[in-house]
Write a structure and sequence with these properties.
This protein has 316 residues and is of the alpha/beta class. The protein contains 10 helices and 14 strands. The chain has a single domain, classed as Aldolase class I (TIM Barrel), CATH 3.20.20. Helix content is 31%, strand content 18%. Helix 3 packs parallel to helix 4 and helix 7 packs across helix 9. The model has no long low-confidence stretch (mean pLDDT 94).
Amino acid sequence: MRTGTADIATTVGSVGLPNPIMTAAGTSGHGTELGDYGDLAALGAVVVKSLSVRPWAGNPAPRVHEVGTGMLNSVGLQGPGLEAWLERDLPALTACGARVVVSIWGQSVDDYGRAAAMLAEASRHGSAMVAVEVNVSCPNVEDRARMFAHSESATREALSATECGLPRWAKLSPNVPDITAIAGAALAGGAEGLTLTNTLLGLALDIETGRPVLGAGGGGLSGPVLHPVAVRAVWECRAAFPDAAIIGAGGVASGRDAVEFLRAGADAVQVGTAIFRDPRAPWKVLRQLDRWCAARRTSVAALRASARTRGEPVTP
């Protein structure tokens, strides 16, 4: 599949990957759904849709709405529950050779702890899981439903509860005044890496009725419109935490988008919303990144190294 000759291997903290291109949680299903469009083992990793300890029905329809160059979604973290996923979907991912990052979420610190315990037990029997992405961009019922990722203390508590023997990456929200403060709390709670970022809060109205278009009201804005926001988050967190693992996520649809994240300080890149338009998008981004590096006789490692020595703060 690759057409370039560049060295595009990377490491995300303690996790070594053949390349930095992953899927993003919530955009490619719980298992091998994208397998009909490309070799899942050829990607750096497959990040599955966020799972909770129990089955979750999600939000009422409609759940997705296109807005300009972006997309609003209010799926509501629908999923079969972690136990069902471990029994049904993980074996298929393991069989196809994919490296799997399991994304988890919860409504309480106890939910995160229970999910981590289940993953710890599963990992003892061997599987394709290489890391856990702790999605803290979800409502905390113990704190008036405010998102975990909007609070330093709640973020730290959620990460502290998820020790499971696998590296943990905290998926953070951009809807905060200072993302480096939340990132610092996640790292203090035991996160090895940061996934930057989840969606922006947004709302679309039916102009005839004045009512929200989505069934649950507001939603999360993703796609190309999110990209510069996520690039800034990566840039700021790399300057603040030179040794942390960072995964860039937001509006990646081309190899150039991936390079921009790597230049900003990311160790790896997730492709998400682009998959809805083109299910082959992750492999396309991978090919383009490979060609870009080969044409310039550079490597992903070199791009990462240059970003780590930058040390420049960003200005408004």
